Amino acid sequence: MMGAKGTSFVPSPNLAPPDVADLLAPLAPKRLAPERPPPSEAAQARAAELPRTATPSAVEALYRKHHGLVYRLALRYGKGNVAWAEDITQEVFIDLMKALPELRDHDDLAGWLYRATTNRCMSRLRRERFRSLAPIRWLFGEHQPEPEQPDTLVMARDDLRRAIEALSALPVKEQVAFSMYWLDGKEQEEIGQILGHSKGYVCKLIQRAVERLKKDGWGGFP
Amino acid sequence: MTTPAPNDLLARLRAADELYAQAAPDPALGARIGARLRGLSAEPRRAAWTPSIRGFGRPLALVLTCAAVLFLSLDDDTPHARSGLASPKRPEFAADPEVSPAAERASEANPRAFEPPRSPAPRASEAQPPAPSPSWRAPESASPFESDPERSRDGVRRSPKNHVPPGPRSRVHTPGGPLDQDGSEGLVFWSPTQALPGESRAPTYGAAGGDRGPNASTPKPPGAVDPPPQASCATPETWKERAELDCDDNGLALAEITYLDPCGDGLFRSAEHECAEPDPEVNVCTTDTVGDGITCQDPASLKDIAYQACQLAGQQMVDFQYTSGDCGWMTRQASYTCCPPIVDPPPPPPPNPPPEVCQSGSLGDGVTCVDRAVLKEQAYAACNELGLSLGDLQFAGDCAVDQGSKIGFSCCGP
Fold it and tell me: What residue of B is the nearest CA neighbor of A138?
């Protein structure tokens, strides 16, 4: 079943850079529970890393520390488009500067960045899908979008390119929910909290995505 | 390390994520973000609701267009009368040739428009009547400046169609109009008729600044020419002459004429006539002569020749006149007229002819043989003296073929 993943599931060790592993730890408390520091210590650590004031230099410091997580997620949803990912990264850290005064030790910066990046990517993907519709293109006087440049990172490998295109062909919500569940190891309930949907709806989104992918000949789902 | 199955999507997506994780953003991105953050902190915070209108040109234009169309449609359907803004319906006036055609077209294009803009009425001194059209008819007398006081009083209006003579009409003809040049042939015509120049004139329409304008919606016969603001009164003979000329111009004959709009003293202001293609088999009478004009011939034989000529043409001889009579009782030439036989209606029975008076006589001694022509000439002269015509002739006597010794004749006359 989709919502009953086995406890033996372990995210890929190469999913995130080593310095992000600590940041991702609070996002999967159950699965990474053995590696997770005690709550009190983690809270103190998180509180310590948050700057007191939302100055540009403070945000730049946070960028230098956490840009890997944001940039990786942006590259995933942007199909490896570097410019697309850089735009998302910039927007997310600008948002961080605006939201930083309200982020205190009661919040989780990595989790906030994860949520912010995911929502940014999802909003941008939906906007791009909407604006790619023919009537909307005519209305805004835009021409047929040029085919995206092949990703230099993964497009060299045909198998990866086909997999990314298959994922990108899904509806945006299904694509994001599928990625969060199967690639990031998020729980359905948490996904629902991030996307603003119920757990049941998230389960349905993931099921639909799997069915579409299976219909296209893809497998590997437990 | 095992190779994933060819269709293992998750394995490939995780591999792609690994590659993404190894990718580092451009160092310039950090500098850009830093600059942007510093700029953001330096500038005053923009109102969150301030939208950027860039890129909204087309949607805005679309919305405005839809709103304009909606507004116009609602405005068009707004019945002015419902709001009490409609002015009372004005009397219909004849079309004014000075009216702006654009305004007239606008009125036609939007029949629901109550009050199209109207040009001010010209003053009497400025009113220049246009050149009269070759064919026109006077406008209807609904104008308050109608020259016919009787019609103005009783309010009787006549639509032009009411006066169109009944019968088949294949087209409307306006002499001098564009239909004259098209060369099309119609069987029956009707056209408004204009008085000849020099006739009496009716008072000028609209000369006093009457309220006439482009809203004049008097129905006009198709192809009718807008009449000049002046109407002419003419006698029926003038109208008929004009109509005949009009029909002749088209190679037709006047079939029917209706005089309209009496203006007193037996005059009419307009007339409608109908031209019809003449039927050569029915309406044409021919006149010809018999005899060479030199030789004296028997009038009876000339009459026979004329009668036979009419019969050969399928007609009847209706007239026979001697034109040269210096041959005594003979004639050198005679003219005759052949007309189609009158079949329907049957001619009324001829009145009882006056009782014919005949007198008989004889000439010659019965012995001396005289040329028959001489005897006949003497008989002819005798009848002339009595005021009668020579009738029957009978020669007698044992003479040569062309001679006789005695002639008996009868002179008859009314």
Answer: B58
